[in-house]
């Protein structure tokens, strides 16, 4: 698993493709630091990364550090990549977000929350 994080989408795509080409079988994708995208703006790079790499993705949610929550709207938007978005790692005890991820999990086989 390779970690992906960056402010620019093209930078995240480059990191993701290099990781895949180097042998990574999955990606841990986090929200960008020092940026405050909406949930829709946050979902767009995840979907682009999934489309460009075809790798399994675990979402890394740590809103206290990034200032951005991966909430219900975000999860609804990434649900289209359900075959590849397979995990949700929450860095904080944000029960509302974990509850949303768990509901998302019910519709996706193989999806896990940590």
Please characterize this protein's 3D structure.
Strands 1-2-3-4-5 form a five-stranded parallel sheet, with helices on one face. The longest helix has 15 residues. The chain has five helices and five strands. The chain is of the alpha/beta class. It has a single domain, classed as TIM Barrel (Alpha-Beta Barrel). Helix content is 45%, strand content 19%.
Give the helix level as a range of percent.
40-55%
How many structural domains can be distinguished in the coordinates? 1
Oligomer: single chain
Rounded to an integer in angstroms, the radius of gyration calculated over CA atoms is 13 Å
CATH class: Alpha Beta
Termini gap: 16 Å
Q: Kindly report the spatial arrangement of strands forming the biggest sheet.
A: 1-2-3-4-5
**From the coordinates shown, what is the CATH architecture?**
Alpha-Beta Barrel
Question: Strand share of the residues?
Answer: 15-25%
Number of strands: 5
Q: Helices and strands: which structural class? A: alpha/beta
CATH homology-level superfamily: Aldolase class I
Strand and helix order: EHEHEHHEHE
Low-confidence stretches: none
Largest sheet: 5 strands, parallel
Count, helices: 5
